[in-house]
Design goal:
The protein is α/β, with parallel strands linked by helices. The protein has one domain. It has five helices and eight strands. The strands form two sheets. Strands 1-3-4-5-6-7 form a six-stranded mixed β-sheet. Helix 3 links the parallel strand 6 and strand 7. It is elongated, with a radius of gyration of 24 Å. The mean pLDDT is 88. Bound molecules: zinc ion (ZN). Zinc ion binds next to loops.
Length: 167
């Protein structure tokens, strides 16, 4: 069963029982933490996710989100749209012990009853999908250094020369 909208919050246990799936767009405007990392306002985020149970009966959420995120290229310092894609799989542990065991296996695990904030989760996943050093994927020209001008370290070289002489 798939709903053509994103809910504000979901209950992983109940959704897993019903095998619920959701797909829709999310407005990035209220996502302040993501917004701080962007050079301009992002376009709509499209996401889909679903719930089911694993072999041991735990609720599992599998989802993805895509968005064009405006970033500053670190090579040419121009703005470009980074096509972000986040994929996640979260397991909902049944106890703290269960959570520890799953985390040791390297799984993305949570142990909290109650509903999940959908916007917060998608925001978190997109932040994780941001590149450490954003660059135009198609390549670009590095920022031109001032030609024929004063070398930025000229002053420093003079200073060093003077110090050597003084000692
Ligand atoms: Zn660039």
């Amino acid at each position: 069963m798939e709903s053509a909208y994103l809910p504000k919050s979901v209950d992983p246990e109940r959704s897993a029982d019903q095998g619920l799936e959701f797909a829709g767009d999310l407005d990035p405007a209220p996502l302040a933490r993501l917004g701080e990392l962007l050079a301009a306002q992002a376009g709509p985020i499209s996401s889909r996710f679903g719930f089911r149970r694993d072999e041991e009966g735990r609720a599992v959420m599998v989802g993805s989100a895509e968005a064009s995120l405006p970033l500053i290229c670190q090579r040419c310092t121009d703005l470009f749209l980074f096509e972000a894609r986040a994929d996640w799989r979260r397991v909902f542990a049944r106890s703290e012990t269960d959570e520890q065991e799953l985390a040791e296996k390297g799984l993305d695990v949570c142990y909290h009853g109650g509903p999940l904030d959908v916007a917060e989760l998608i925001e978190e996943e997109l932040i994780l999908a941001l590149p450490m050093a954003p660059r135009h994927p198609e390549g670009c020209e590095p920022v031109a250094r001032p030609a024929g001008g004063i070398h930025p370290f000229a002053g420093l070289a003079e200073l060093l020369k003077r110090e050597t002489r003084d000692n």
